[in-house]
Model the fold of this input.
Amino acid sequence: MEISTINLEGAFRWESRFVFALNRDKITDLYGDKKDDLGNSWFIGKPISSIYDYQRTGGVWTEDELYKGQIVTGFYPGQFRLRDFDGDGQITPGSDRTIVGYGTPNYRFSIGNTLSFKNFTLSFLINSIQGGNGYYIQRNNYFLEATTDFNYAQRMNQPAVRTNWLPDNGVTDAPGVYNQPLILSGNYQDRSFIRLQDLSLVYNFQQSALSALKLGGLQLYISGKNLHVWTNWEGYDPEVGGSSLPLMRSVAFGLKVNL
Amino acid sequence: MMKNNRYFLPLLILLISVSACNKDFLEEKPLDFLSPTNAYSSVNGIEQGIIGIYSDVRKQWYRNGGAQAYGLFGLGTDVGYDGETPGGQRFLNNYLTSVTPQYSVIQSWWLYVFAEIQQANTLIDGVEKLDESLWVNAEQKNGYLAEARFFRGWAYRLAVTLWGDVPLITEVIQSAKTDFVRTPTAEIYKQIEDDLIFATQHLPGRGQEKAPGRLTKAAAYHLLTEVYLAQSKFELARDASSEVIDNLGYALMTQRFGAQYDVFGTGDVYYDLFRYENQNTPENTETIWAVQFEPNVLLGVTHPWSNIYSPRLSRLGNAPDGKPAYDPLYQDTLGVGVARSRGTNLVFYTVWEGNWDNDIRNAEHNIRRHFYYSNPQSVWDGKLIDLADYPPGARNLLKDTTNYIYPFVMKVWEPVVEVTKGTNPATGGGGQVHTDFYVMRLAETYLLRAEAYLGLGDQDLAAADINVVRSRANAHPVLPEDVDLDYILDERVRELYAEEMRMVTLLRTGKLIERTRKYNDNPLMPGANIQDYNNLWPIPQQQLDLNRDNQWAQNPGYPQ
Done:
């Protein structure tokens, strides 16, 4: 859906463009047998980007829970809580996995504005992809859990190193220092973001000044790309996700001459 | 205009029905790229395909091809643990938490094994379908079949050792298949035997191979020996290994040979065996099969063995006087170890008891135990590094002894080449090595035959074979009554440490759990927390999930 408006006309001109997109998909059948495909994480009646995993129920198990016997077999305080769906006291691949969310966006939007006053033109584009309702999540263990299988914090710059859990420090969003649970589960984060994607300020020289110089056009501009991102995602860039390199930020000054 | 429409619709229907009926129309004929349908349409194409398998085997099992291949060569067994983070949780440091159906390394190894099987099957199929007139003779055709079938056997032998019952696939899989059946181990061994017996008949003899590093008959007999031993077929194992030992032109090296590179001023034949360029010479009659590493050829690659096994001497820090222990420009000839698989006391001390000074494999130039400060700025320059010289409490002895300083096994290193052919001696090549990697060496064949004799109850002949290896090393002979399986496994540590796939040997002999508990002396995780069910590895969860039309049971002990 797209809306283009001219909000003001005259010496001060303001144009806007608003784009909104929403996409939904659903698998109706896979191989003609109405059966799910666990290996590829494809489920009848669910979006193709479904993520099948153990479900974290928030926080880490505490020592108190250990003493009371409330922790499932083989797990320890300082490890993330997992849901024991069948209540048998163990976490097993056969009965304790579920669809924890979807990789695809919930919706996208972008807002473009162009403001002109006399010889100046200011334009900017805000771009956003939004999750919510379980959409647009991605596994982010490497950045969030320094001790997934080895202390990667020693070997890479981690943007999101967190204080490890200790029995008495009240941390619930990071595991204990030595954490290798029997069952690995994803630490999913919402990748929703709003990005100031483009910003440019242009000054067009007066036609009268140009004819003296015998030029067809003369323009001075400053423009920036990817200037700021608002997000709660703690990896590199929310749009490229966990493993890829982030987008570059660039700023350019320029003079454009038309002969 | 309107009139024409009368013809248009039927024509359209006709066109659709023509294209829908004719399957050839949908078939893609590769003209400008390679695919299995056209790549193997010439002998040259087959040759390229075979070379591809060698390349994959090298990359995935003899380098560090993204999936921690060194995990098969000693880590988490009686001979090694993670010295870099002994209390950490990297692969095989703690069996309970890393040998699990979800662990990525296990998943990768499964995929590698079955990719090799598929590749071998594709080539076997290609060879069999190739126009007969293109072959020079039947032996040429059978030679290629033998190589492909060897690799299929090689891959299946790994699979069956690690996972037990796995799907037996001898045809090319053309499309997605989700109903694989786990074939009983015995049937898989039968197929491996068939493949390897064919290979013994059709691979070339020693020196007849097309290029260094290509397979010969002896490699097939050697692997066949291990396959027979795994099934307690001791007579067949004896016969297969005897073929290599007696009839195919191999002999243990007993004199110094090749490029000698005595960087420490002394050397011996065991030292020479592991020096750069000494593996594939006609002179070396001990090599059965060595994987090729070359520094100076196009696409030549290295392997990180020194990096994996060696102490991280460069991180030792300061000498007792506070000056750096090593001149930062030139740390040592020993390169950059990271102690990823630090040897246990079994490797460095226990197995040498009684032969400490005479066994050449324990000589200082083969296992370097003394290191010296090397920094002219320090008064300690040139002096022996001894942690006792530091003030009490000045050092973290756990870190020092597991990670920074412990005996350095010289067979995994090639200092001279880095200095002469590399460019920066200060970096020591980052622990990368170019020596060809022995996959099979005659000394091992002797030790395999000793196992066969032991299985047949003949300790005398078992001792005799072990003593062939021991006498070359100037070790005292073993008495027949002292030979048992553990003795042979100890001898393999002395002779084959860092060469053999220790994990595979111990799984094959059923000794993994017992010996890991006994000898894995990781100070922070003794016995690697190995579990009673770790005699088989878990099937990767992803594979269980993907095989949606035939649910397999997970191997016993692992979460179902």
User: Anything to note?
Assistant: Chain A has two domains: 1-24+103-140+187-259, 55-98+148-180. Chain A touches chain B at residues 31, 35-40, 74, 90-94, 147, 149-151, 178-184 (CB under 8 Å).
